[in-house]
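Notes, Module 5: Reading structure tokens.

Key idea: the token line is not a picture. It is a compressed description, and you learn to read it the same way you learned to read a sequence, by spotting repeated patterns. We will look at two proteins. The first is printed below with its tokens.
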Amino acid sequence: MSTTTNPTTTTASSILAQYGPRTTSSSSVTAGAVEDMQNRFLTLLTTQLKNQDPLNPMDNAEVTSQLAQMSTVQGIEKLNQLVSELAGTAQMTDMASLVGRGVLVAGNQITLTSSGGIGGVDLPAAASEVKVTITDQSGVLVRTLDLGALDAGSHNFVWDGKADDGQTAQPGIYKMKIEAKDGSEPVTATALQLGQVTGIVKGPKSTDLQVGDLGIFTLDEVKQIM
């Protein structure tokens, strides 16, 4: 077993450089709710005018009042839409700075490059002992790392690529398992895997991060930014 240290900026950059080129992608969803509302209103008003009682026609003031109300509603809707679009644009601008950066998200894979591998662990409570078991895709033990005592929260670690027998493991994707305990009591631990942000995805309700082949994640699901 060996004790690991937090990755330096150089180490993280070297590992991420082997994940592939930075790319950006985004998608947006727009709606013509305001136009639809206006069309429905005009259709209804036209129907009312066609079917009105010739002996008791609609008052011009009433028609003008309804048109004015529609104009007010339309203006409010457009203002709300503009504010929403501006807020979304500001958020996307902020999140765009994450493209190319490494992030830790929940997952049990660790990618070993020629520069090493980075993983992480998320703890709901402090643990006096945390161990990481790394196996190949067949389940054969490759390396056991002793992270020692850790506080509650998210932590990262570096695997130097060495196996327990001292040999250098082949670059590739490995599996990891986290075991944590505080004294004799087990502590639930979540393994974190490293991914590179490759794009920003804007949906109808939120703006999320495309993390390479790992998938799409919300900002709340990102535990660390490297």
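Here is the second protein, with the sequence above and the tokens below, as before.
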Amino acid sequence: MASEQTVHMNGGQGDTSYARNSSLQNAEQNRMRPLIEEAIADLLSASASMPRSMVVADLGCSSGPNALALVSIAVDAIRGQCFRSRQPPLEVCVFLNDLPDNDFNMVMKSLVAFQQGHRSVVTGVIPGSFYGRLFTTGSLHLACSANSLHWLSEAPEELRRNKIPAYDIDEHVRRGRRRVVIGAYARQFRKDFKLFLELRAKELVAGGRLVVSLAGRRSEEPAAEFTHAWESVVLILSEMASKGVINKSKV
């Protein structure tokens, strides 16, 4: 979703689409609700006077019903704050961002329906990697991102140079390289996350808010649930390679 490569969620609304297979991601978005509501409350209470408009963005929106989940929470929170303060509704500009190969046709249809129910909201899409500049300086009030920042800008260069895969199908080799691979990806994540924060710092208004959520773990040892998932994928890909369905060198 945020890699420069053409990696994206399955579009459309078929059985294998992201739209029909993203309930876990939606649950994580719902857990972000109090954080977004708190961010909006802090933003509006910190202002000497109520702003006339606000700009909200979801970075790595994907497609399907989840694409509008975070910005919907933000818009509702802004409306609620205005109502409690007895202020007229603010004009809100909502931007959805993802890579160019994302299913923006489906996103645009969702935005049209969303805008019909929110007359004071202007919407738009911003295709591009969030590891690059997306907005003008000091233009964003709130930026959100859920389930996206684990997508790196690229595979670690040191692993690509030495042709070391992230997950080797040979278990003995994989265990021997584990610390090397984990270390390389950890360094790449730190580099990318630092860049992400630096870019958003330029794009946010003074006092703007950034709310992000991403998966992580406390230990370097892979959690059992993640290990089982990877092993299942490897078994399937290995069988496909043995039958000539895919190139073995790409497994």
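Summary for the second protein:
- The first helix runs from residue 23 to 31.
- Residues 1-5, 16-23 have pLDDT under 50 and may be disordered.
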